[in-house]
Structures are given as structure tokens and as C-alpha cells.
Design goal:
The protein is an alpha/beta fold. The chain has one domain (4-184): P-loop containing nucleotide triphosphate hydrolases (Rossmann fold, 3-Layer(aba) Sandwich), CATH 3.40.50. The chain has helices spanning 16-26, 56-64, 83-92, 102-111, 125-135, 141-155, 172-184, and strands at 4-9, 30-33, 36-37, 52-53, 68-74, 77-82, 95-99, 116-121, 163-166. The strands form 2 sheets. Strands 2-7-1-8-9 form a 5-stranded parallel beta sheet, with helices on both faces. Helix 5 (125-135) runs antiparallel to helix 6 (141-155). It is globular and about 40 Å long.
Length: 187
């Protein structure tokens, strides 16, 4: 294993995906670790670059074959991290970025203590709620309530990871720069 594994976590709407896109553009010899999921792709997502989209049956076969070092059900969909995909990425890249839910990051950290986890903090729960209402117009009130409860629990864990970066409203570029400094310090 040559590269460093950097996991970006945070509650829904914290800016994880956009932050990783910005980091990939600035960090030479970096790549994104792509998780496997059973959820349907969103209109702007591509199979193989955002996620590997599979059926529940395909996912279960991978679980039974021991291909994941962590997997979880999140909001009714399954997500998993492939051992082989990660090993291949770490062998060929200096930095491998991952966007993984908090539960998965905790599992990975136990299995791989050398993984470095950055919590992207969007601010108070009211900010998360406002962002979620603006971005996720496709979900029911019941789903919104579940996501808000999960976000509360995740925000409570912010200080339990290797680093915390503030991604305040209107200060995204600052959050990316702060994360970049952390990543550069890992070399």
C-alpha cells in the first residue's frame, strides 16, 4: 500500500462531494474511491465514477463473497466499500479520497487505523435543515425527519474523527483550502 486513504464525512448537505471534486483537481496523483450502492443514480451521476450502481442481489453476492471491508444500509439503500478497489487505488495513487457515511468511516477506521477521516461540518442543525429543504425536494416529510435525526447524531460525532473542517455557508473555498492543508500535512 503506497498511498494515503483520506475519508471525507459529514451530514447530508455538508458539501462532501463538491469538496472531494475540488480536492481532486488540486492534489496531484489523487483519485476518488468509488463505493458500491443499490440506490438508483441521480440524474447527474455516472456509474463507475460517482458510485458503482448494482442490484440488491449483486450486492448480496459481494457480501457473501467477502468482497467488502464495510457495508451498511443507509436510508433503505445498501452501500459498500470494495477491498480490491481500494487496494488497487492505494497501489497506484498518492492520495485516495473517499466519501463514506459516518457509520462506514468508523468501521473503516477500526479496520484501517492509518485511514485519515476529515469531518466536514456545515454548521448548526438549522443550516443542515435549510440546505436539505433546498436541495432534496424529492423526499417526503417522513424521510426528511429521518435525515434530520441522522444529521443530529452525526453532528454530535464531529469531534471524534482525525480532523474537523468548517464548511460554513458562503465559505466553501475556505473549507477546501483548510482540507487541502490537512492533506498536504499527511505526506
Amino acid at each position: 500500500m503506497k498511498g494515503k486513504f483520506v475519508i471525507i464525512v459529514g451530514p447530508s448537505t455538508s458539501g462532501k462531494t463538491e469538496a472531494v471534486k475540488a480536492l481532486l483537481a488540486r492534489v496531484p496523483n489523487s483519485t476518488r474511491f468509488v463505493s458500491v450502492t443499490t440506490r438508483a443514480p441521480r440524474p447527474d451521476e455516472k456509474n463507475g465514477s460517482d458510485y458503482v450502481f448494482v442490484s440488491r442481489d449483486e450486492f448480496q453476492k459481494s457480501v457473501e463473497a467477502g468482497e467488502f471491508f464495510e457495508y451498511a444500509e443507509v436510508y433503505g439503500n445498501l452501500y459498500g466499500s470494495s477491498k480490491k478497489v481500494l487496494a488497487d487505488a492505494l497501489a497506484t495513487h498518492g492520495i485516495v479520497f473517499a466519501i463514506i457515511d459516518i457509520q462506514g468511516a468508523q468501521t473503516i477506521k477500526k479496520a484501517m487505523p492509518e485511514a485519515f477521516v476529515v469531518f466536514l461540518n456545515p454548521g448548526p442543525i438549522e443550516v443542515v435543515h435549510a440546505r436539505m429543504k433546498k436541495i432534496r425536494t424529492d423526499i417526503s416529510e417522513e424521510q426528511m425527519s429521518k435525515r434530520m435525526e441522522t444529521a443530529r447524531q452525526e453532528l454530535a460525532l464531529a469531534d471524534s474523527f482525525d480532523a474537523k473542517v468548517e464548511n460554513r455557508e458562503g465559505r466553501f473555498e475556505e473549507a477546501v483550502e483548510d482540507t487541502l492543508k490537512i492533506v498536504e500535512g499527511l505526506s
